[in-house]
Amino acid sequence: MNRIAVLYDAGQAVLSTFDLDEVLQRILGIAHDYFHLRNVAIVLLDKQSQELYVRSQIGWDEGQDKHRLSVGQGITGAAALKKLPVYAPDVSQDARYFCSAKSTRSELAVPLMVNGEVVGVLDCQSDRVDHFDSETIDLLTLFSTQASIALQNARLYSLEQQRARQLQAINAIAQQTTAVLDLEDLLSRVCQLIQDAFHVPHVSLFLREDHDLVLRAHHGTLTPNIPEGGRFAATAEPWASILADNCTAMDKDLCKAPTRTKFFAETASRMCIPLVSFGQTLGVLALDSAKVDAFRDGDQQSLESVADICATAIQNAHYVDRVKQLAYLDGLTGIFNRRFFELRIMEEIERARRYGTGMAVIMADIDEFKRLNDEFGHVLGDEVLRQVSSLFHQQLRKVDVVCRYGGEEFGILLTQVKTQQAMAVAEKLRKMVEGWQFPGVPRTVTISAGAATFPQHGTTRDGLVRAADNALYAAKQAGRNKVCLAAAVRRQAATS
Fold it and tell me: I need a surface site. Which of 38, 179, 273, 495 has the fewest CB within 10 A?
């Protein structure tokens, strides 16, 4: 009767709290003190991997609680598989025994069951052979039933608490992202908010640009393998299947994956969620962890809700960007205007200074354009301007910028280029215009151009534009239809 009273008191103790860690400690304390067990552990079942892992223990040898056992492996695994208590009166005679403490002589594993399903195992060990008699086994089995209920209640409570925190995080992200309309600020803010709210080691945003995905922002504690702005073919994995199905993909173990498929040096697992707004896939939200199998199915729904909010915010920022661009477009040619040139040249200079990459300014001018207008009329002159603009736009990379600087003059910004590359681009444009047949113009149309690079020919906006303008003037003076480099102008000025 005494033992039944102890069991009643023990049950009341474990059922009186919803805090998971406190429940675990009470279960272990009761098993250790009331049942005189030297070593006792709560071993929980990971449903995804079907492995048992030690959640809390008393008396185990150092480091032994780090091991994971498959269902069916060891005495605890056998209890989980059979859904019945498994007793080894002498572990030295039981081939199933997994040594967790050298002092152990007998072991009893009692499954923890909820609604007919195993959630874990109460593992009881003694330093005496055949320590557990039938009455003790029955009592521990009854106690494990109460422990299972307490454990499940605590886990449900913990899950509800986690969901409440996630809902708060989702609301906070929704409120903060709707107030940010600048795309670059938005992307950076989103990564920080998700990383802070969901405690993910690293968060990245890849946006779709034509047939590529581009890393536009990331935030976290891992070491990048790729630079911001790195491009990936959307037809390559892991992107192809994610974008084709518009479904979340989880990679549980990337430890042995090729470096090219790992965005960060420490990546061991990853979750990728497509960013979809009004049926359009804008990109991918990627979450990386240095732990294997770090992402739970229970987190997926909340993170997908966040991804939907982010996709809508990104789409809104795109709309705002398009409206802004209309203010920066030249009405005649459809390319950017001088206002946009002034905005972007400062950004490109700062980027080149920060990352140590080159950039260049090309100033180009249609030769004898006034005479062309006088001979063939302004309507045809306007068409020449439009076609030259189109040629420039087609020949340049998408990351480069071509603007109508004023009249028949164009300003071109080239990113991440050195002097030789800038001159090659300018010469390509010159040859393209020279060889182009302009409808209604019976003679050859040509351009002159001057190029200047950062930092060789200037480190400020005024310095670079002045150097490129001087080079353009030198090309005009040299007979037109030529390309000159700013450095050549400087040397020539120094020797004259």
Answer: 495
